[in-house]
Amino acid sequence: MGSEIERVVLDFVHAAYGEHMDVDAMTALMAEDFVWQLSVPLSPVIYGRDAARAELEKHNQLSTGMIDGSEIRAVVSNDSTVVVERVDVNRIGDTRVTFHVTAIFEVRDGAITCWREYWDTGDIAQQLGIDPMQMFAQIGQ
Question: What is the pTM of this model?
Answer without folding.
Answer: 0.90
